[in-house]
Fold:
Amino acid sequence: MNSRQRIALSALAFAMLGTAGAVHAETYEGVHSITSYASRADVRADAVAAAHNDNPYADGANAGPASVIASSTSRAAVRAEAVAAAHSDNPYAEGASSGTAPVVASTLDRATVRAAARAAARGDALPL
Structure:
């Protein structure tokens, strides 16, 4: 096959691809007209009302003052709980600030634990 035949064959292939693509092409229907069921006065009234309301999407400092939450607990009870929590251990402490480790009772005697530790140090298999 010479170069002219190759060029003609590739042009034919591209033309066939182009016609196949044209079958699935979208059509342009023009600009759609605006359809609204609200009058200008209704839209303007809604816009004014929305401009005078609080921003429902505001967060942080832009949200304004926090809403008041009604509580059934008395002020003295909350203060007593706060004082008790301040004087207790820190439940979120980690590492050196967590205090001493709790004593855990074991069912094994000291000799059994010591023998298992020596066997592990030597590389012996531990009994399961």
Remarks:
- The chain is about 45% helix and 0% strand.
- The mean pLDDT is 80.
- The longest helix spans residues 3-23.
- Residues 90 and 98 are 7 Å apart (CA to CA).
